[in-house]
Amino acid sequence: MTGSHRPTFAQCRAAARSITKAEYGSQARDVVRPRGVFGIVRGRGPLPVLLYAAALDGRLVWRGPDSLALLQPPGGRRRPVPGGGARLALIRLVERHWDALLYGVPPLLLLIVAAGLGLIGGPWPVTVALLLVLLAVVHIMALVICLVITAAIWFVRQLARPRTTDEVAAEVMPDQHWSMTLCHHGPGATGTPRDLLRRTTARLSELITAEARQRLLPTGARSTDLVVTETLICLGRGVTTAEARRAVTDWAGQPRPSGSVTLRMSGHRGPEPALRVADTGSFLLWYVTGVTLVVLIEAAFVADWEQRACGTGCDERPHTYGLALRWLSQRLLFTDPWGLSPGTYQAWTVGWLTSLMSLMGVFVTVGAVWQYRAYRQAKIADYRQEREVRMGRTPVMIMVADRIERDAVLAAVHAENGAEPEREFVAQHTVFHLGELENTRLMLVQSEQGAIGPGGAAITAAAMIRRLDPDYLILTGICYGLRPGPPGGDGEQRLGDVLVAKQLRAIGYYRQTDADDRGQIRRGDHVSPSPTLLDRFRAAEVDWPGATVHFGPMLSADVLVDSRDLHDQLLESDPEAYGGEMEGAGVYAAAAPSKVDWIVVKGISDWGHGRGNAQRGPAAENAARFVVHTIRTGALDSPPAAAS
Question: How far apart are alpha carbons 445 and 398 in whole angstroms?
Fold first, then answer.
């Protein structure tokens, strides 16, 4: 189990006590242990048993009795768990069918004991046996009556109180997606609720990946690089403390990429527009109430008419209020009670009108059920549409190559959206999910310096493109300039200026020859970044209040340039170049096969000689702020295909 060992049953009992004492413990208990079909009995087993069964299934994210989360597969289906045997089967039976066990086991035990006493014989054993049989019958009948009452109450509530989109989603979506039905982080827990939520994300990915691989085995196939795209439904009432609810709300509000999970929390939206009575089918409840009141009033008139007409010979006529009420209630079924019928035409007329009200009620019921069904489907459609909008945010991956560049991006994004970065460990890399900005989902990935190497830009970009599936890839950070000089002229640069690659020229690939005076013959690609991204960054420069932005060719090689002679050689061999850096060629090499739009945006920290640390931070910050400014304008709200 991610992050911890599997808890013992004693630890699960301690966790159940901690949950019960929590601020919203009773609400959370109602979520994980809802009322069963009989109403007075819970549908799931006791909380310690439920937690222990989830631990055996691997669905319990456990950090301790005061910090845990419970995952539920779609529809509560059983997950194939190796081993366990009869013990696990018994625990599952108690956990999943608690109400059925309470319905059937006590009467069965009573009947077994009664049968044994009957075999013994004698007055007292037989008497006790009959009492036990009676108790068994009473037990069954009591639960059946509770079943009928519970069904009637549920029906009335469904019609009387319209369900919000989130409430309908909380009822329906767990049947279609994984859900977090319980999240408990009490005062005595170590760490923060976010630590628990991060482990929950990781555990969900593990469960889905393991299940997918197990399903692949019979087909003779195997996958070592699965991408998890599940939507996790977070049930707000299942969170036990106010602090944890705030954390879950923030967590669920942050978009997740392809390759992780998309989060949703039910129960935290604002008020919805007022509904008319006809919108939800609740008019059936009003109709039933009206018919009941009419019958109660009619009974008084019928009793008075019959009493006046019959005088003293009223044995088979509804001459009292009780008999009149009984007769009118039977008229709702188009019949008269046995031995009871009116003798006045007024009563007969009222009786037939009452029967017509019952007939009309059939049509009202059909219309109400139809309207409620349409209302419920509309709420589910609203939820799905909102989910599609949330999941439809454009994924943008930002790449950096060192700590200064990483911190500059984190600070620039946080200044705009206030979101705390969420770490996700994907294979050998760490992804920082930076939240939403306009209609984009921002992800930050750090590679090692240079394009080549196990942790270099080429391998890192290729792996993350495959796992995160971004629409745009932006390489930002620091670079060296090749055109130092006072401000004012085209191409003349200052430290801290931002350089956007209009063309990337890979100079690390060349032929060394003695055949002529050329010495080195460059064979690297000269490639252009995404036309869409280049256009968007040009447009963003119009109202950019920061450092000067230059658009021009940029050199890229796996060489840390810190030599005046090399600087001069580079400028002499490529007089059009504006600057150079080390990771761009690797990013291009990874993005081209996947057809991902890419661009390089970096701040000038030096001139390729006399390097120092003083300008690295400001240069990285200027580049990061310009990238964030461009995204803030809405330039990347649409994916490349839609943008073009």
Answer: 6
